[in-house]
């Protein structure tokens, strides 16, 4: 790839990177919204649980109040029975007629108190049933709402997870394609470099061979010329020896007359 193609590829990958960053910011905003929804639901759940605890405490207070009322009524009954006993004594002392009337009055009051006690028990049972029904309704609504929120959260989570996995796979595919292209470029540059080295080697080898051939040729010519000179020297040496023999013979021939 030349410089223009590389710049074009760089611009494409820069645009893809910007798009990925925008998508990432969008998904971060969505994640913050989901987190905010989760916090709101959790706060509402905490408030509902606090409301339920308040209702439970109110019911306990009502039960305590009811028990206190029962104790008060029992004390009143005991007090009335005590007064009745005193009245019985006074009636017995005062006369049989007043005693009978007081006994009848006591029986009426006792019956009324028992009736009031039964009514209070019935009212307490009704209130307890109503409170339990209301608590069960609130709990059911909370369970439904939590289940709905959980389903929405799981759905959004799965969608986000699928989207991010898809984008991650796309990025991996792009990076794998880029890696293959870079490996192909490197192989092409390597092959081109190898071819250049081979050509340079062939050129250097040819120049070296021609150089050594020229040196060998010059050496052969020098050797031939030296051989010729040696042959000339040998001929000259033989001629000189022959001349020396002739000179010696002449010297011998000249030395005899001198003697």
Tell me the distance between the termini.
Answer: 109 Å
Residue share in β-strands: under 5%
* Domain module tally: 1
Low-confidence spans: pLDDT under 50, at least 5 residues? none
Report the total helices: 2
Work out the number of β strands.
0
Shape call: rod-shaped
What is the residue-mean pLDDT, rounded to a whole number?
82
Q: What is the SS-derived class?
A: mainly alpha
Largest pleated sheet: none
Q: What does the radius of gyration come to? A: 64 Å
Element-by-element helix/strand order: HH
Task: Please tag this protein with its features.
single chain, 259 residues, mainly alpha, 2 helices
Characterise the protein shown here.
This protein has one domain. 98% of the residues lie in helices and 0% in strands. It contains 2 helices and no strands. α1 (3-94) runs antiparallel to α2 (96-258).
SSE order and pairing:
Elements: H1 3-94, H2 96-258
Would you summarize the structure shown here?
The chain is built from two helices and no strands.
């Amino acid at each position: 790839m030349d410089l223009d193609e590389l710049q074009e590829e760089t611009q494409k990958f820069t645009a893809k990177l910007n798009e990925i960053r925008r998508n990432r910011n969008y998904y971060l905003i969505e994640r913050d919204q989901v987190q905010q929804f989760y916090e709101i639901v959790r706060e509402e759940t905490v408030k509902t649980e606090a409301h339920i605890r308040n209702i439970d405490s109110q019911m306990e207070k009502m039960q305590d109040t009811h028990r206190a009322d029962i104790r008060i009524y029992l004390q009143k009954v005991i007090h009335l029975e005590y007064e009745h006993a005193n009245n019985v004594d006074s009636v017995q002392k005062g006369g049989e007629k007043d005693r009978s009337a007081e006994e009848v009055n006591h029986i009426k009051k006792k019956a009324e108190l028992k009736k009031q006690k039964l009514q209070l028990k019935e009212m307490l049972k009704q209130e307890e049933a109503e409170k339990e029904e209301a608590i069960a309704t609130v709990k059911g609504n909370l369970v439904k709402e939590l289940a709905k929120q959980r389903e929405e959260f799981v759905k959004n989570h799965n969608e986000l997870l699928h989207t991010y996995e898809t984008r991650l796979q796309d990025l991996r595919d792009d990076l794998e394609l880029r890696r293959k292209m870079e490996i192909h470029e490197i192989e092409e540059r390597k092959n081109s470099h190898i071819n250049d080295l081979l050509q340079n080697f062939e050129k250097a080898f040819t120049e070296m061979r021609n150089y050594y051939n020229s040196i060998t040729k010059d050496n052969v010519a020098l050797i031939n010329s030296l051989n010729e000179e040696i042959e000339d020297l040998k001929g000259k040496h033989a001629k000189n020896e022959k001349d020396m023999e002739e000179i010696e013979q002449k010297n011998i021939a000249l030395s005899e007359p001198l003697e």
